[in-house]
Design a protein that fits this description.
single chain; alpha/beta; Arc Repressor Mutant, subunit A; Rossmann fold; seven-stranded mixed β-sheet; two-stranded antiparallel sheet; 45% helix
């Protein structure tokens, strides 16, 4: 993309695309799909919504947008740009932008992580400290080992891994705010911690660069999971390892059957097999169920504290995630695994 766009112009392009070509993605929190008006489409951007008045006129002047009364239509070039932006910034992108902005100064979230996960590493998900230790025990990382953390967030977990193992850890995430927090906090450790903005659709490192690649609940994001796994495979040294935490849920999709909950039938299992990678999978389904029950209890107890900080959206999402997981496990429509891959040495 050669043309430069402001945040407002990016938002206008995505919003109009949502009106004319809405797409539903499972990688979403808190956005109602299929908007009918620009006002409804604006909820896509959450707290990041900016004024669009000038941007709409700019897009018209650039022949990227046409309008008929209150109805907006993208031109062919405008549609191409809009598709590119929406792929890079799904609704979840803006939710996580709010998330990392909020937790940077949230004492409630820090305490929440201590109580739920066992240590405050700004976690979000289902991997507590016991599970993290099982991952590290499996990988047997050594000092100066090169490790890549895919979807590292604000880098607290990557920092913990480096601090406890001595490994050199790189982290990529597509949320600029998260990477900025990681870089600022770890300036004194820049010899063994490296963070940059990156996208799982294009993992930009040299072939054979890493001894291990870690993905903690991030491989839901790629556009083409098989291609992303191919890229991960390429950047591993011979004998290198992958450690992947991944949950698979059977939603209302009739094409998904209980058989797809088996470790070799999940999207990650299929992507690994498509790349001729053998793996072992440890079943964490019941561990996730117990974690979800604790999450529900702790979130309910701390909801008022989150709301008092103005961060009620954090507790709402955690509670919904916990209740959804409990229901899915009890209905036998959920599975969670820790995948371990060793890339052959020869």
């Amino acid at each position: 993309m050669t043309q430069e766009f402001t945040e407002a112009e990016i938002q206008v392009l995505i919003a109009v695309l949502e009106l004319n070509e809405p797409i539903e993605t499972p990688n979403n929190i808190g956005y109602n799909f299929y908007p009918k008006t620009l006002e409804q489409a604006a909820t896509y951007f959450r707290k990041s919504k900016v004024d669009w008045s000038e941007a709409i006129n700019n897009m018209k002047a650039a022949n990227l947008l046409n309008s008929q009364r209150e109805h907006y239509i993208l031109t062919e070039q405008g549609t191409a740009y809009a598709h590119e932006f929406r792929q890079a910034r799904p609704p979840l992108w803006y939710w996580y932008l709010d998330f990392y902005t909020a937790i940077a100064n949230s004492q409630t979230h820090a305490l929440y992580c201590e109580l739920l996960f066992g240590k405050n590493l700004c976690q979000d998900g289902f991997m507590d400290m016991k599970h993290l230790q099982q991952l590290l025990d499996m990988l047997c990382l050594k000092p100066e080992t090169r490790v890549l953390d895919l979807g590292c967030g604000n880098g607290h977990i990557a920092e913990y891994i480096s601090d406890t193992t001595g490994a050199n850890v790189w982290g990529i995430d597509y949320i600029p705010e998260a990477i900025q927090q990681a870089q600022k906090r770890t300036e004194a450790k820049e010899q063994r911690l490296f963070f940059k903005v990156g996208n799982l659709d294009c993992i930009d490192f040299p072939d054979g660069y890493f001894d291990a690649v870690i993905s903690i609940d991030t491989l839901y994001m790629p556009t083409n999971l098989t291609e992303t796994v191919r890229q991960i495979k390429n950047i591993l040294k011979p004998g290198g390892q992958m450690g992947i935490f991944y949950s698979h849920v059977l939603w209302g999709n009739s094409s998904q059957t209980p058989e797809t909950l088996q470790p070799d039938k999940t999207p990650v299992g299929i992507a690994l097999k498509n790349n001729n990678l053998r793996f072992q999978a440890r079943d964490f389904t019941q561990a996730a169920y117990q974690h979800a029950r604790r999450k529900k209890q702790i979130t309910e107890e701390m909801r008022s504290a989150f709301e008092a900080e103005g961060n009620g959206f954090l507790s709402e999402v955690q509670l919904g995630e916990a209740e959804g997981t409990i229901h899915s496990v009890e209905a036998e429509r959920y599975a969670r695994y820790l995948y371990h891959v060793v890339y052959p040495a020869g």
